[in-house]
């Protein structure tokens, strides 16, 4: 829950509300969706558009298509600058090269991390010795 604020208005009993504003009505929470669907928020109820069910369904369907196209276009516009930056950085040649396999890296940390793949694992020798000693023990016991 949020922090409650006690409001005392003359002539009214003590009431509480959450900090940050009043609770929204259903109509208030519906308005942004109607605007996204390109439906006039001032006249949708008085015209009784919602009471004419086939017309209302058609209006909602068209509005959903409009809203989805608008959302998709906004996402494409937002993605465009990021893709342009990625294309620019792809054209820059790598500045760090692996001396073992010749792979190129743009950042030094990438090369440092990559060099770990060329090092022998320290536990392999231990595992070979351990499995050899276990085999010897089991052969001697049996």
Descriptive account of the structure:
The chain is mostly helical and 142 residues long. It has one domain (25-141). Helix content is 54%, strand content 8%. It contains 4 helices and 4 strands, in the order E-E-H-H-E-E-H-H. The protein has a two-stranded antiparallel sheet with strand order 1-2. The protein has a two-stranded antiparallel sheet with strand order 3-4. A hairpin with a 7-residue loop joins strand 1 (4-7) and strand 2 (15-18). The radius of gyration is 34 Å and the shape is elongated. It starts with a strand and ends with a helix. The mean pLDDT is 76.
Share of residues in helices:
40-55%
Main pleated sheet? 2 strands, antiparallel
- Annotation field: number of helices: 4
Q: Radius of gyration from the CA trace? A: 34 Å
Distance between the termini: 70 Å
Overall pLDDT: 76
Number-wise, the strands total: 4
Order of adjacent strands in the largest pleated sheet: 1-2
Q: What is the element string, with H for helices and E for strands?
A: EEHHEEHH
The number of domains is 1
Low-confidence stretches: none
Taken from the alpha-carbon principal axes, the silhouette is elongated
Classify the secondary structure makeup into a structural class.
mainly alpha
Strand proportion, as a percent range, falls in 5-15%
């Amino acid at each position: 829950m949020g922090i409650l604020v006690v409001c005392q208005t003359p002539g009214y009993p003590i009431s509480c509300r959450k900090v940050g504003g009043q609770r929204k009505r259903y109509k208030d929470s519906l308005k942004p969706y109607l605007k996204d669907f390109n439906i006039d928020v001032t006249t949708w109820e008085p015209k009784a558009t919602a009471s004419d069910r086939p017309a209302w369904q058609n209006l909602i369907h068209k509005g959903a298509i409009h809203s989805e196209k608008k959302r998709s276009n906004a996402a494409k516009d937002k993605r465009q600058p990021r893709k342009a930056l990625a294309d620019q950085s792809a054209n820059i040649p790598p500045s760090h090269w692996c001396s073992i396999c010749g792979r190129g890296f743009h950042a030094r940390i990438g090369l440092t991390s990559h060099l770990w793949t060329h090092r022998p694992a320290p536990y392999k020798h231990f595992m070979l010795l351990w499995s050899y000693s276990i085999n010897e023990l089991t052969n001697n016991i049996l």
